[in-house]
Amino acid sequence: MTKSAVFALLLSCMPVARSSASDTQAPPPASHCFSARDVREVRQSDPRTLAIRLGDGARYRLELADACPGAMRAEHLQLTSRQGWICGSNEEILAVGDRRCAVAGLARIDAREYAEHALRSDRQGGNVAELATLEVRGKRRRGFGGTTAYCVDARYMRGWSEDKGDLIVEMSAKRSGGNRYYRMELGGSCNEMSSSNHMQLVSGVGTNAICGNIGDRALFTRDENIGGVLRPRTEGSLAAQYGCTIRQVYPLLPGEDSEKR
């Protein structure tokens, strides 16, 4: 198992949640609370904001009362509360080494917002060499420098479609952290998408990871009958030959997107 300073703390392999009660947990104080025992991943997008993913896929934004920078780089990280429930009150504490940072608020978020927090967290880390860590079970995978929270591996794309000006890609769920479909928001209109038969994902950093980085794009081609043979062909304009810019990538989770396929 690997803990990456610039990636995420995989809580399943490094315990960070602790309850002051016995092993039998009392009922939650309110319906919006979650159990600290269910936390699987924590990311810090700014000194006062954490994004949390639970084992069932639910995602939350945790606000701290005061700035608590560098939490993901701490040797010891614990989220503590009475009876192990996290509800967004000042009774809950994020212990970062010798520092104790009080929790001020809690809100449930969707996969799109979680992806934004994760991307900011990774970009603020500043250690590009560690971005080879893959989210699934904390293992390293050759040729993929991203996280399934906001990236896909282009090698495992199974299909694609258009939805409301966005690109929906079908992935191998086994290779994408259990996520089968992703939405890719494009930077501007992409007229060639609706008239094309084929699509290729191109990474701007020369890897297989498509994360919405600068240079990430979708290249579309359509079949044309040339001498009695169908051949893929790009549109003639320079913009079409470059492809459509990919601005943001995030998984489609059950219940969050009415167009999931």
In total, how many domains does the architecture comprise?
A: 2
Report the oligomer: single chain
Mean pLDDT: 78
Q: Which structural class do you get from the secondary structure elements?
A: mainly beta
Folded structure, characterized:
By secondary structure, this protein is mainly β. It has two domains: 9-128, no CATH class; 151-251, no CATH class. It is built from two helices and 19 strands. It has helices at residues 111-125, 238-242; strands at 9-10, 17-19, 34-35, 39-46, 49-54, 59-64, 77-81, 85-86, 93-96, 99-109, 152-153, 157-163, 166-171, 181-186, 198-202, 209-210, 217-226, 229-233, 244-251. The strands form four sheets. It has an eight-stranded mixed beta sheet with strand order 1-4-5-6-10-9-7-2, with helices on one face. Strands 12, 13, 14, 15, 17, 18 and 19 form a seven-stranded antiparallel beta sheet that branches. The chain starts with 8 loop residues before the first strand and ends in a 10-residue tail after the last strand.
